[in-house]
Amino acid sequence: MCTSYLDDKFVTFRNLPMEQRISCFTKRGRVFDMIMSQQMDRQFIDDIYHLTNKLRHISKSKAGYMFLQNILAHKRAMLYFNQPSSRTFLSFHNACHILGMKTSEIRDPALSSEVKGESDDDGLRTFSSYTDLIIMRHSKSHMAERAAWLLNTFSNRPIPIINGGSGQDQHPTQSLLDIYTLQRSFNNKGGFDGKTLLMCGDLKRGRTVRSLSFLMRNFSDVKVIYAAPKAFQIREDVLEALESYGVPYTIETESLQKVLPLADAIYMTRIQDEHDRDHGDSGKIDISKFKLKASDMVNVKPTAAIMHPFPRRDEVDVEIDVDPRAMYWRQERNGMWTRAALISYIFGVEHEILNY
């Protein structure tokens, strides 16, 4: 099928209202493809939270582990990672194995037919011939959305697509594990409702902060603070979304230290200088006032949760790792379990797990 024809059709699809686009990724009234955070409502988030906790509990015994190994032993997953990844790839890989799924992978486009000129669209349709699920990370924005749209619209074998990160667009499963970590961290502190979330770093190009921001509409009385130099501040489309949701936000461009005492949760991110070819030289921008140092912890609430999607550079002092408020290593491990819960939900076997 002509790529230019599909390009035109996809542009038309992308111009549809959000509700119509989301409906393309829903089958039988439930999530089929996980493409963007806007697909998740509070019921879905809470369902995944409880399902994740159940999975973790079941896996602690040998009998429970063997039960989980048979849940999706008849399914196969393709991990198509066009872009470098450690945590996301490994957590999805192990999430599939927890559920007994067989996996295949392409992690280097140079080893695929892309080097022969095969289009992304034809590659994805090829993968769908061999597997029951495609988990993908791509350097281009909107590629996961295009993949799901393509298979749902033009393929006689539509299979679920999970977005493992698409350009500077979104990373919805990261936001799912982030919100799980927040719910778990504040489980005995009144829940995440009513809390203030502080996000700091490269907010402009960070797909993790975009996806997590869009989830804020699902919680009551939350506030968001965006702390970053002007050059790295959050994009207008995210702020417009928060305004439409009625979620109050504050922009801080002078220093992280000014707003630290206000935060119940602190979400640190690195500078994404791999995008410099499109956005100028990150190294020329002073980010010294937007790093979390061990000496800053006296100004952080004793009940706060400190998070980071990783990889980390020097924006969070390693001395903070031993502080009980540091949740980022737990957050990392939570990714494997929430992704296993999501996969089981997509395949409709969550009741077998919950009733075990």
Summarize the structure.
By secondary structure, the chain is α/β, with parallel strands linked by helices. Helix content is 39%, strand content 13%. The protein is built from 13 helices and eleven strands.
Account of the 3D structure:
The chain folds into two domains: 3-170 and 334-350, 3-Layer(aba) Sandwich (Rossmann fold), CATH 3.40.50.1370; 172-273 and 281-332, Aspartate/ornithine carbamoyltransferase (Rossmann fold), CATH 3.40.50. Helix 6 packs across helix 7 (143-154). The chain is of the alpha/beta class and 356 residues long. Helices cover 39% and strands 13% of the residues. The strands form three sheets. It has a five-stranded parallel β-sheet with strand order 9-8-7-10-11. A four-stranded parallel β-sheet has the order 4-3-5-6, with helices on both faces. The protein has 13 helices and eleven strands.
